[in-house]
Amino acid sequence: MSGGTDFAPRYFRIEQALRRQIAQSQPHDPLPSEPDLAREHGVSRMTARAAVTQLVNDGLVYRAPGRGTFVAAPTGPRRADHLVRLSEEIRKQGRRPSSRVVLAELRPATPAEINRLRLRKSEVVAIHRVRLADDEPIAFERAVYPGALAALLDADLTGSVHEALVDLGHPLVRGSATLTAQSATAGDARELNVAEGSALLVEERLILDQRQQPIELSESRYAGSRYRLDVAFGVEPH
Asked: Which of 3, 44, 207, 222 could be 175's S-S partner, Cβ–Cβ 3.0 to 4.6 Å?
């Protein structure tokens, strides 16, 4: 009797061949185009696309519109019970962190910001950045800080804002976060170079300084195919 792979769908055979190629490739190496795959394997372009789409869904490759399909960098894990700077996480992966500043301004605070940050004055420092690893967008981050920290606007915002807060006498000591899954908006798609409607991991954080005062309220919108969160937990006996 023949092996099971003789009866495997054609797209599955293409997918397995590509997986072997990816295992021997480096992040961002190009893969054959779908027309080339269709010709090589004697299938329709639709069948070739099905194989590539499965690899995209598994986070092994990514499509760059107008350029082709490329091997994805391994997603970086993060422990849910640790406050770790994203720049540190990226360095641990052997990649280069950087940030692109989208907005940095002092503006009136919203009622929700006044409440969450316990503000006495109704101004906040708003900083929006795209966080990158080896120039690949990982997260679109929108953060606000008490208006009394307007000196943040003089810091190098392409580096670590948390280090700038330490320099201003506000080391961060603890925080809380809420995680949700959301679809990418048009703005997310533009800043993160993802398809509108694609999956994002969204984290809302409130971080306190050494005086137990709220110092940062942020929303980070992570490209779902480029980031993952690891959770460590204990099991309570019944």
From this structure: 207
